[in-house]
Amino acid sequence: MLIAPRQDQATSAHDRVYRGLRSRIMHGEIAPGQSLTLRGVGREFEVSMTPAREAVNRLVAEGALQMSSSGRASTPELSNERIEELAVLRSLLEVELASRALPRAHMALIERLQTINNTVSEMVARQDAVGYIRTNLEFHRTLYLRAQAPAMLAMAETVWLQLGPTMRALYGRLRRKDPPQYHRLIIAALKAGDEPGLRLAVRSDVTQGLKMLAG
Fold first, then answer.
1. Long-range contacts (CB closer than 8 Å, 24 or more residues apart) made by 62-70
2. With 90 as the cut, is the pLDDT of residue 202 above it?
3. Within the chain, what is the greatest distance between any pair of CA atoms?
4. What are the pLDDT digits (tens) for 166-193?
5. What is the full DSSP assignment across 129-197?
6. pLDDT tier at 4, thresholds 50, 70, 90
7. Sequence-separated (6 or more) residues with CB below 8 Å from residue 6
8. Residue 117, CB-side half-sphere exposure with 13 Å CA sphere
9. What is the C-alpha to C-alpha distance for residues 127 and 132, in angstroms, rounded to an integer?
């Protein structure tokens, strides 16, 4: 009778660490090349080494972390070729997601996207890099959920996860002072039911900055 509760507790601890680390990596709270120790992860989340190791290994499998031969985990420092590859993946996946979402883009969704984009602008004005990345991804996820394509969205989120630290580096390099112009074009295309315009706006939004970083 005691085995199941202990298993549930272990699963819960692993999931809590995984989700916490995943969020930090995706939103750029951890810089490229930053090392993580299992002891440090366990201390931060107040868990034993086992759930810390399981969470780290899961993130390694997803490409969010890399493991050295000595067993030290770190966020990857992406090469230009890898950045370009992930930019192409974003373009392919997210343009398709946006296109599938368009028939279900009713005014309630458009108003929600406008509200989120106002928050994106606030984060830019504050020069809050993590807040900007978080709300920018919320903008895209909110739209893509209407595509009703969960497998495709999961693949897009895996790409976001791999790019999180690099997106933080990109933000620091660009020193952005204006909100993303392509968000306004995405919203305008949704209002007009303009699929070609929507596809172009999404493609430009998800690739422009990464191309600048790779260049």
1. 62/158, 62/161, 62/162, 63/158, 63/161, 63/162, 64/21, 64/22, 64/25, 64/26, 64/161, 64/162, 64/164, 65/25, 65/36
2. yes
3. 60
4. 888 877 766 666 777 899 999 999 999 9
5. HHHHHHHHHHHHHHHHGGG--HHHHHHHHHHHHHHHHHHHHHHHHHT--S--HHHHHHHHHHHHT-HHH
6. very low
7. none
8. 19
9. 8
- Give CA–CA dist 143/136, Å, rounded: 11
Residues 51-62 have a mean pLDDT of: 94
Closest CA to 63 of 196, 163, 169, 187: 163
% of the chain exceeding 70 in pLDDT: 89
Distance, CA of 87 to CA of 26 (rounded, Å): 15
